[in-house]
Amino acid sequence: MRTFKTLTISITAVVLLLGGPMARAQSQSDLELMQTFLAIMTDYFQIIESTYDIASDPEKAAIMQMSKIQDVYEERGEKARSADVLRDVLKDSKNPTIRNAAYMMLGDTLKESGRSDEALEMLRQGLDENIRAAD
User: Fold this and answer.
1) What is the pLDDT of residues 56-115, one digit of tens each?
2) How many domains does the chain have?
3) Is the CA virtual torsion 114, 76, 95, 51 positive or negative?
4) What's the CATH code of the domain at 92?
């Protein structure tokens, strides 16, 4: 349905452009400007579609939020503090997708913080969970 909406909006934009004053382009630069506008609009609708897909899926949204938390801590020069948040996620969530993302993000955070032994331990715990779940 969302793809249908995107297609409908794109077609509407094209119709409006063709019926508008720019449709009477007199030069190659006018046509290039119209093509650029359409390309920007297409990209814009793809961004909206991607944002909707993430926001409407709790797993994707949780993973994106964990990533954003890491970004904020990193901007503050405190990326290692995001490890506590990720450990809380592992403590509170039973969702395998969210847990896998948390294990990987925690492993990266610990490794980048110079705590490679802890990083390996976290990644091994995640691997063990996945192996048990796959059996």
Assistant:
1) 899 999 999 999 999 999 999 998 899 999 999 999 999 999 999 999 999 999 999 999
2) 2
3) negative
4) 1.25.40
